[in-house]
């Protein structure tokens, strides 16, 4: 008999009030890239599932993208900007080494209270940020937390390297997590992991203390693929077991949009129908820490995800870092 979880056994500390996203105006298709580098639309689609990506303009900053997504998330939450008392931005492409992009967005929103900071966990950053936000709310150190994933990965790509430049895009997504008064929905559990032994599988070959350059993305694709399928499937299985849930109770999985084949293989290993995997990589490409909130906002705007459904968020990124979050929407 299928196990059922009970709200009485799960203490929800925070719920999602609203979601928002923002994409730059410029779209670059696979065919556009094939005019500049040795690649093709078919080659990219077959290996990644990507058809196009959005690229920020030269005068756009990461904080600009994050600010636009944040405004929409706050509006959809039906609260005032002044109700926000914490901002967490997950990003690997900040405006500056310091101050944080979060404080810049705080200023753009006109907020003069609360606090703000960035989280750097590469493509897993949004999962890390959700965990931190949920803990602040649980400990009553914050009531309404703006969690943003925002990236301009086009600035750290070698556009002559077809193994990496075809994979990424720019964008931002945001959610408002709030103290859950109704106690009937919210974050069920978040699991975080990292293993620094594998840092050289996916990294940027630049940094303040190493060579004073921003650098370019470097990746050992086959190794990342293998680790992603194994680690993400294990993470989800352990999290389900921890919360007395079974796979059949999952309504949707929103994976980090790194590669469609990774998503398909992870679903196969878990024994979860691919129809439950929400995919936007075809239109957005890999937007790193922005990919999960971008996909979540897309699914909510299309009314794919409904209140009361169980949603799993999962991601893996450079570090290696990885994790998953289970929530009842």
Which shape, going by the Cα principal axes? globular
CATH class: Alpha Beta
Biggest sheet details? 5 strands, mixed
Q: Give the helix/strand class.
A: alpha/beta
| Largest sheet, spatial ordering of strands | 1-7-6-4-5
> What string gives the helices and strands in order?
EEHHEHEHEHEHEEEEHEHHHEE
CATH topology: Peroxisomal Thiolase, Chain A, domain 1
CATH architecture: 3-Layer(aba) Sandwich
Total tally of structural domains: 1
Q: In DSSP terms, counting alpha (H) and pi (I) runs of 4 or more, how many helices?
A: 10
Q: Which homologous superfamily in CATH is the superfamily?
A: Thiolase/Chalcone synthase
What is the CA-CA span between the terminal residues?
25 Å
How many DSSP-defined strands? 13
CA-based gyration radius: 19 Å
Low-confidence stretches: none
Features:
four-stranded mixed β-sheet; Peroxisomal Thiolase, Chain A, domain 1; globular; five-stranded mixed β-sheet; 329 residues; 13 strands; alpha/beta
Structure description:
This protein is α/β, with parallel strands linked by helices and 329 residues long. It has one domain: Thiolase/Chalcone synthase (Peroxisomal Thiolase, Chain A, domain 1). It contains ten helices and 13 strands. A five-stranded mixed sheet has the order 1-7-6-4-5, with helices on both faces. It has a four-stranded mixed sheet with strand order 8-13-12-11, sandwiched between helices. A two-stranded antiparallel ribbon has the order 2-3. Strand 4, helix 4 and strand 5 form a beta-alpha-beta unit. Helix 3 crosses helix 4 and helix 7 packs parallel to helix 8. The protein is globular and about 55 Å long. The relative contact order is 0.19. The model has no long low-confidence stretch (mean pLDDT 95).
